Amino acid sequence: MIARSDGEGSVMIARRIRRSAVDGARYAVLGWAACAAPLAAQDGPAPIPVNVTVDAGRPGEPVNPVWRFFGADEPNYATMKDGRTTLATLGQLAPERVYFRAHNLLTSGDGTPALKWGSTNAYREDAAGRPIYDWTIVDRIFDTYRARGIKPYVEIGFMPEALSSRPQPYQHDWRPGSGELRTGWAYPPKDYAKWEELVYQWVRHCVARYGADEVASWYFQTWNEPNLPQYYWGGTREEFFRLHDAAIRGVRRALPRARVGGPDIAGAGDDFLTAFLQHVKAAGTPTDFLSFHAKGSPSVVADAGGSHVRMGIATHLRAADHEFGQIAADPRFRRTPIVIGESDPEGCAACQGPANAYRNGTMYSSYTAAVIPRLQALAMRRGLTLDGVLSWAFEFEDQRPFAGFRQLTSAGIDLPVINVFKLFARIKGRTVPATSDGERPLDTVLRDGVRAAADIGAVAARDGDRVSVLVWHYHDDDVPGPEAAVTVRLKGLPAAFRDGAAVTELRVDPQHANSYAAWKAMGSPEAPSNEQRAKLMAAARLDPVHAGERTVVTKGVATVRFGLPRTGVTLIELTPAERARSAR
């Protein structure tokens, strides 16, 4: 049994008791309180002093929103009630720049979803073996994306029953903890020419429906994790290469300028990606982007209170760096854009269990905030171009609240992790240098994870006269820990700040933008009433902790101080005070 889950269990009441002292100290520095108790007055361990330095006068490269990719096993959830609202939220983060990847877009069936299953019935054959194409269900899925400003990251798969070289049994009987996953949908085609023609007809139809320019902005890749034969692929490596070549030929026949790539392998520490690169060079198969997956490995460890979840951020980073290394070793592909086609704390969104108890709360959100900048740093260190980091998390329709799946929303209610993506979406313009003496070195996290001192890091950007600073407080172990007393010193602020800065803070932590904590506080109802649901929706909102309060700027330098709880993520936004007054 998990004694503490998501960093919010038995410590929540104590944190609430301490909150007035912590907030008082934070707001006094920003001019938000006339008097307040100092940080040292709070109960429990002393806060961790952290100094963050931001040089707003040195704008660098444009901010790269690599976070804007998402995906799910179950494609049909997209058209259901909570799927539609979740997609709408994602589309609003970066309209026309968010991508969604889904399995089972060519799988046979009537469109009824199940865990790790979906279908569109796009392909059948008549009694004479002639193809019958039906785009009704897949059109409905893509139409739902496009109506919400989301573009498809098209996974070409899985194998229709009429084309499978081993069709029976076809639909799997997998469920969490039992059942067979790899059935008829996972096998190579019995006829590669018909497979290529299916892909050609599909893309041709998409061009007619959405327009060539639109479809040219999508990503097209073949299959999922073909280097894991026990799960997603029932053929050999060579058969996958043949499948991939045929699919890419079909795409490019229909739209010669389509963006194609792959192979979206699992980051298993093997040489599959190297073999793929050698194959596409020899075969002349177009490759506009490269894709692979990287996952962490949470576990349950014993402690004095019973047990707790320990995350595996180092496993996640090492998996990515292994694949980065294979790409960097091939001069032809060093400049090819890369998408980490699944990037998650562990490998099975539809699985539940004690090690996955991190998902509903702020362990997941703080992990996400800490891992994405590290993945960017690893790619940059190898001289590679990281285009996207895809979170394989969406929603699971008509499940009980906070059921323990890896998801962004639960029963239509935003979880803390989706609020971190809302924070990322606000970081715009150009990056500026940000250093934190509480941030663990990249090589330390890559080797050991975050098992000793906490990782309290920062990234920052400047968009004209607006400066954003994201700070996270992460640890692998889901146990109570001291808060961080963060001092952010911003220098190089432009002349527009001469009359001071308006400071807005948005926060995801055990008390803020946290529907799960609110649900537990109301007794974890299995079927929340309308009134309870309204309260959960309100608790989920990412509202400013304080908005537009003023702080002094002297010679282009401003200082902001605040307390940040363990597993918390905060975004500080500074705008010129005079402009903020004029906008009121």
TrEMBL record:
GO biological process, any: carbohydrate metabolic process
Keywords recorded for this protein, A-Z: Glycosidase, Hydrolase
Protein name in the entry: Beta-xylosidase
Residue ranges of every copy of the Glycosyl hydrolases family 39 N-terminal catalytic domain listed in the record: 51-556
Active site: 225
GO MF annotation terms: hydrolase activity, hydrolyzing O-glycosyl compounds
Superkingdom, natural source: Bacteria
Coiled-coil segments on the chain, per record: none
Pfam families noted in UniProt: Glyco_hydro_39
The family this protein is said to belong to: Belongs to the glycosyl hydrolase 39 family.
